[in-house]
Amino acid sequence: QVQLIESGGGLVQAGGSLRLSCAASGLTFSSRQMGWFRQAPGKERELVVFISWSGDSTYYLDSVKGRFTISRDNPKNTVSLQMNSLKPEDTAVYYCAAGQTRYRDYEWSRDSPGYWGPGTQVTVSS
Predict the structure, then answer these.
(1) Is 108:81 a contact under the CB 8 Å cutoff?
(2) Which of 104, 116, 97, 111 is nearest to 35 (CA)?
(3) 74 has pLDDT over 60
(4) CB-based contacts of 112, cutoff 8 Å, min separation 6
(5) CA distances from 105 to 56, 57, 63, 82 (A)
(6) What are the two backbone dihedrals, phi and then psi, of residue 87, each rounded to the nearest 5 degrees?
(7) Which residues does 21 contact at the CB level (< 8 Å), separation at least 6?
(8) For a surface tag, which of 16, 70, 74, 80 has the fewest beta carbons within 10 Å of its beta carbon?
(9) What whole-number distance in Å separates Cα of residue 51 and Cα of residue 93?
(10) How far apart, in whole angstroms, are the C-alpha atoms of residue 75 and residue 10?
(11) DSSP string, 30-81
(12) How far apart are CA 109 and CA 31, in angstroms?
């Protein structure tokens, strides 16, 4: 049974920082595409960032470039999202996502990830 669990969400003022983490049971994070989506009330879910299965490339939503950083944490069983210079428009539920299989990258701009966490709330006040 696969479970992804996010942590680190909370309330922060504009300009502040948060670090989200995602851990899993029943799933290997190493050599697997990992990423984060978010969904604000009344808005569609959008891809925020992903890291390729090999870790040699990343994709960032234009609006978060230079502010957010994805990384795989030692011992390669946790993925994190460092969020700096937060803006009110970043307010959303953030979801950890994992590729269906290892050793493959997916087109998450059009295809749904294989696994999802339940989400963690990030609220940025102005």
Answers:
(1) no
(2) 97
(3) no
(4) none
(5) 11, 10, 22, 22
(6) -120, 155
(7) 6, 7, 8, 73, 78, 79, 80, 81
(8) 74
(9) 20
(10) 25
(11) TTS-EEEEEE-TTS--EEEEEE-TTSS-EEE-GGGTTTEEEEEETTTTEEEE
(12) 20
For position 64, what pLDDT does the model report?
98
In tens, the pLDDT along 21-69 reads 999 889 888 999 999 999 999 999 999 999 999 999 999 999 999 999 9
Nearest to 18 by CA among 91, 77, 73, 74: 91
Percentage, residues of the chain above pLDDT 90: 86
Does residue 115 carry a pLDDT above 60?
yes
Strand pairing report for 115-116 and 92-98:
antiparallel
Q: Are 47 and 34 in contact (CB under 8 A)?
A: no
CB-CB neighbours of 97 under 10 Å: 23
